[in-house]
Amino acid sequence: MYSAAIAAAKFADQRLDARTRTDFTGSLRRFAAFCCAEGYPDPLKQRFIQLPGVIAAYINQLATSNKSQWPTEKLHAAISWHYTKPEMLAGGHPHDRWLVETAPDGSLVPR
Questions:
Q1: What pLDDT, in 10s, does the model give residues 98-110?
Q2: Position 111 in a domain
């Protein structure tokens, strides 16, 4: 199942329009600059425990400083795209995905 998910993520990533990829990259760079300015690590390279709250704060800043909701929606889509890219999924990264639990007898535990 894991290899199928990686293959699907690669396929989806390859199908992304170049202009959309450029827009997403710009949104992510601005978000990373916001994080660094606030004293947090670069979220494109390292996850950190405060990330959900920092994302919420940045989205709130975008929503209140723009008449259009497009920058906020674009950031939301860009974050989703970034954290499901094949290189973010490969090797079990991020660590909070693809957990396989087994019983003491070695059988898989259903979820």
A1: 455 677 888 766 6
A2: no
Query: Exposed e or buried b for every residue in 2-30, given b needs 16+ CB within 10 A?
Result: eeeebeebeeeeeeeeeeeeeebeebbee
63 vs 6: CA distance, rounded Å = 33
Task: State the residue range of the domain holding 24.
Answer: 2-92
Give every CB contact of residue 59 below 8 A, 6+ residues apart in sequence.
72, 75, 76
In the chain, the number of structural domains is 1
Is the model's pLDDT at 16 over the cut of 60? yes
